[in-house]
Amino acid sequence: MHELSIALSIIEGAQEEMERQGEVHVLAVHLKLGPLSGVVKDALVFSYGLACEGTPLEHSTLIIEEVPIRLYCAGCQTDVDPISSQHLHCATCGSADCRVVAGADLEIVALELSS
Fold first, then answer.
1. Neighbours of 67 (CB within 10 A)
2. What is the CA angle 111-113-115, rounded to 5?
3. How confident is the model at residue 92 (pLDDT cuts 50, 70, 90)?
4. Please, which of 3, 4, 54, 90 could form a disulfide with 44 given CB 3.0 to 4.6 Å?
5. What's the CA angle centered on 27, arms 64 and 14, to 5 degrees?
6. 48: burial class by Cβ within 10 Å (0-12, 13-18, 19+)?
7. 107 backbone dihedrals φ, ψ, rounded to 5°
8. Nearest to residue 12, comparing CAs of 56, 49, 43, 65?
9. Exposure string (b/e) for 72-103, b if CB count within 10 Å is 16 or more?
10. CB contact at 8 A, 71 and 97
11. DSSP classification of residue 54
12. pLDDT at 100
């Protein structure tokens, strides 16, 4: 379950920011997560709760914003939705000449801090 190692990395990053900010507590960690990240949301939330035990983040919350898959279609020359998460072709023209521009996200975007 690699979600536990990801949770530990999130906690480590939050603790580093706590040290930079001084006397603060982390109330919540905000994370963007896409379906192509390879991370199972429920497993990450569970792992985060376990990994926080006994740390300064023990009572913090992990808030996850789910990012939908978006593609850039070379044919349409714009960002489009895929046909499905398993079929990454343009839903508008059907082209396979697309690249993922969103949906592979796994990123800490904010920390809610209190002093």
1. 19
2. 165
3. very high
4. 3
5. 75
6. buried
7. -145, 130
8. 56
9. bbeebeeebebbeeeebbbbeeeeeebeeeeb
10. no
11. T
12. 96
**Residue 27: enclosing H or E segment and its boundaries?**
strand 25-33
Length of the chain: 115
Question: Which amino acid is residue 60, in one-letter code?
Answer: S
Token pair 């905000």 in the structure block, residue: 30
* CATH class of the region 3-114: alpha beta
Is a pLDDT exceeding 80 seen at residue 1? no
Query: Which structure tokens are listed for 20?
Result: 């930079």
Q: Which two tokens stand for residue 42?
A: 């429920």
Tokens of 57: 């983040």
How far is the C-alpha of 49 from the C-alpha of 114, rounded, in Å? Answer: 20
pTM of the complete model: 0.86
Structure tokens at 105: 């996200």
Q: Are 69 and 85 in contact (CB under 8 A)?
A: yes
